[in-house]
Specification:
Blueprint: E1 2-6, H1 10-21, E2 25-30, E3 46-47, H2 60-67, E4 75-77, H3 83-94, H4 98-126, E5 137-141, H5 144-151, H6 154-159, E6 165-167, H7 169-175, E7 188-192, E8 196-197, H8 200-213, E9 217-220, E10 224-230, E11 233-239, E12 244-245, E13 249-252, H9 258-262, E14 272-282, E15 293-296, E16 301-306, E17 309-318, H10 327-340, E18 351-359, E19 366-369, E20 375-379, H11 385-400, H12 415-419
Helix pairs in contact: 1-8, 1-11, 4-11
Bound molecules: flavin-adenine dinucleotide.
């Protein structure tokens, strides 16, 4: 079968790898000159099944109100007359109940845990390296109310197969000695020993090389202009350079851009760009930078050690498709990093980046079939696209081949938005 995978982010490339392994003739199209140059470029580096708790929760609307007007707020909403944003926010609010949170955690965790296993398999199959570390992820807390709320979910996550250990402040420093200076401010932590970290851009670049060696053709520097449908199938893909592709099957993995190509087909997909920032600091020899990946709950930031660099990432900004770096927001991340790890590296050498997470209102990706018989979706992974890419790639490749995936698709496809 000929298959076109549209998008060469971590999600598209993982899908193309599995499709090629299945023996299909695969073409990957991306508007950028190489793989993983948009949302997958400089993300937080965490393979964090433990982070499957969606943004939409009972306390989120109140927190968002409290943060309104604060330029250093972890979540920033630029209220604008954008019907897609308004519709997205409405669905988001409807997912803020306790009952919905439980359902959404199970769905996201199902993909994340499966994906962690698939990532380990790919490592074994290909031997690729990407500054990977399998040292777990430690979630640290300074606010008692936030800690109580997180502890309430530990049992559920453990029951669903995500091993989480409650640890006191001394144990936090035992797990990550670079937290010693922060010890007096910590009230506790939750450690997920099976989670991992690594550089998503390096992984995607290397996996794309492996995929190319399996016969995948990469068409870089060409944007997809339009999908043309007839009789319930996609017949043509029009590229901006005039080329037309006519594959047997199409996988849409365009990250936050995916809804823009679906809309002319009459399909509304509630995926909206949630802008985030990262700062990368070179770690000089012997400096006091962490090696265990961390989540700092108070400022909603994550930290990952990527070889001789420390990556810090965070903030969610709903500002349409603008991915430029606001120096004030980026500077806030750098300041918080230096506060937590004063001797981690030279802040003057830090580099900044911003990217658009493809966010769904329920925090669950959108995988699989559409009303068009040969069109499949692999998008909406939000904060967990790196965590979920390998599993989601395998699931969608199975569906393209007409095989049932190894994990249930229940609640993961676009139908859940058509029903509610
Ligand atoms: C600040 C930040 C921190 C994050 N931290 C983490 C983390 O620690 N762990 C984690 O699991 N996830 C994290 N994420 C989320 C993760 O990075 C994303 O979910 C993931 O990269 C999405 O991958 P993707 O392949 O779907 O999208 P992308 O990487 O954006 O890929 C989509 C591709 O489609 C291409 N494209 C778009 N439109 C067109 C078009 N019309 N024609 C041709 N090509 C097109 C783009 O060029 C792009 O290459 C973070 C994200 C951000 C922004």
């Amino acid at each position: 079968m000929t298959v076109a995978v549209l998008g060469a982010g971590v999600v598209g490339v993982a899908t193309a790898y599995y499709l090629a392994r299945d023996g299909h003739a695969v073409t990957v199209v991306d508007r950028q000159p190489g793989p993983a140059l948009e949302a997958s470029f400089a993300n937080g580096g965490q393979i964090s099944a433990n982070h499957a708790t969606p943004w939409a929760g009972p306390a989120t609307p109140w927190k968002a109100l409290k943060w309104l007007g604060r330029t250093d707020a972890p979540l920033l909403l630029h209220l604008r007359a954008d019907p897609a944003l308004i519709a997205w926010l409405w669905r988001f609010l409807r997912n803020c109940t306790r009952a919905r949170v439980r359902i959404n955690i199970e769905r996201a965790l199902r993909v994340a845990l499966y994906s962690r296993r698939k990532l380990a398999e790919i490592r074994g199959e290909t031997g690729i390296h990407y500054d990977e570390l399998s040292r777990g992820i430690l979630h640290i807390f300074r606010d008692p109310a936030e800690y109580r709320a997180a502890l309430a979910q530990v049992d559920l996550m453990n029951r669903l197969g995500c091993r989480r250990l409650v640890v006191d402040p001394d144990a936090c420093v035992g797990i990550e000695p670079a937290l010693a200076a922060a010890r007096p401010r910590l009230i506790g932590g939750i450690f997920s020993p099976d989670d991992e970290s690594g550089d998503a851009h390096a992984f995607t670049t290397r996996l794309a090389e492996v995929a190319a060696s399996l016969g995948v053709r990469f068409r870089y520097g060409a944007a997809v202009r339009r999908l043309i449908a007839s009789e319930g199938r996609i017949t043509d893909i029009a590229l901006t350079d005039g080329e037309r592709l006519q594959p047997d099957a199409v996988v849409l993995a365009l990250g936050s851009q995916t809804p823009l190509l679906l809309r002319p087909l009459g399909l509304r997909l509630p995926v909206y760009p949630a802008k985030g920032y990262s700062v990368t600091i070179p770690v000089g020899g012997g400096r006091d930078a962490p090696t265990v990946s961390l989540i700092d709950d108070e400022v909603k930031m994550v930290y990952s050690r990527l070889g001789d660099r420390l990556r810090a990432a965070g903030t969610a900004e709903f500002a349409g498709y603008d991915d430029t770096v606001d120096q004030r927001r980026a500077g806030f991340l750098l300041a918080k990093t230096m506060e937590l790890f004063p001797d981690c590296g030279d802040p003057a050498e830090a580099t900044f980046w911003a990217g658009l997470r493809p966010a769904t209102p329920d925090g669950v990706p959108v995988l699989g079939p559409t009303p068009f018989g040969n069109l499949f979706l692999n998008t909406g992974h939000g904060t967990l696209g790196w965590t979920m890419a390998c599993g989601a790639g395998r699931i969608v490749a199975d569906l393209v081949a007409g095989r049932p995936p190894e994990v249930s698709l229940d609640g993961l496809d676009i139908d859940r938005f058509r029903r509610t």
